[in-house]
Amino acid sequence: MPRFHCPAPLATGLELDLPPGATRHVQVLRLQPGDALMLFNGEGGEFEATVLKMGRSDVRVLVGTHHAVEREAPRAVHLLAGITANERMDWLVEKATELGVASITPLVAERSVLKLKGERADKKIAHWQAVAVAACEQCGRNRVPAVHAAVDLAAWVRNTAAQPAAAVAAATTAGADPAPQRLLLSLRAGTAALQSAAGHSNSAGSAAPVLFLSGPEGGLSAQEEDLAIAHHFAPVTLGPRVLRAETAPLAALAALTLA
């Protein structure tokens, strides 16, 4: 059954027009009145639906039964990825979504090939968010990972420097779990293996969330790594082989979310 993201309030018995993107997709598939499809709005679960009307520029559907189905990864991994060249970043966002990433923050590092500012940056973020939506439609996820605005790596690290201590203090007071574990992909000698460094669990016994930092083509500079380590990122390695900038974070995601 075809699946479509419909970012609107959904409820059983509701009739509504699909958003433009889903409408075009339904038209391409040549669905007809009476055909079944599945809708999700990112708020949890999915809804059966039936096509009521096919217009030239609109598609009307009847929302049916809700299924409280979740296909999220057992561990929330927030990826901080150095921006790679155009189509490689598209591929990274798509595959990271399929692997269950919780969110993606594109980072501008010293060696980033693609520099984003202003209107161009806004268009790229919107494009990558659309890539994540399409990946969710394909892979069955009902929650769309957010693709945040691109930020400067040094500024991001410094601006969040005080968060771990504050988060731990607040969590301790409230009896909740502390801030996510911070991991940095590094080729430095003596770096711990990812599996051993990320083996922590939260108070409920489930896998603790992770903030995972990975560089662009050429990796992070020594100064950037030093800065990240000074701000609570633990360096980890995936092994002796050097992986491409778009491959390494996906390998890490697979190890963290599928284990």
Shape by Cα distribution:
elongated
Rg of Cα set: 20 Å
Span between N and C termini? 29 Å
Largest β sheet strand count, sense and barrel closure: 8 strands, parallel
Mean pLDDT equals 88
Task: Please describe what this structure looks like.
By secondary structure, the protein is of the alpha/beta class. 33% of the residues lie in helices and 24% in strands. The chain contains eight helices and 13 strands. It has helices at residues 20-28, 86-98, 118-139, 153-159, 163-174, 194-197, 222-230, 248-257, and strands at 3-5, 15-17, 36-40, 46-54, 59-67, 77-82, 103-108, 146-147, 151-152, 181-185, 192-193, 210-214, 234-237. The strands form two sheets. Strands 6, 7, 8, 9, 10, 11, 12 and 13 form an eight-stranded parallel β-sheet that branches. Helix 2 (86-98) runs parallel beside helix 3 (118-139). The protein is elongated. Residues 164-175 have low confidence and may be disordered.
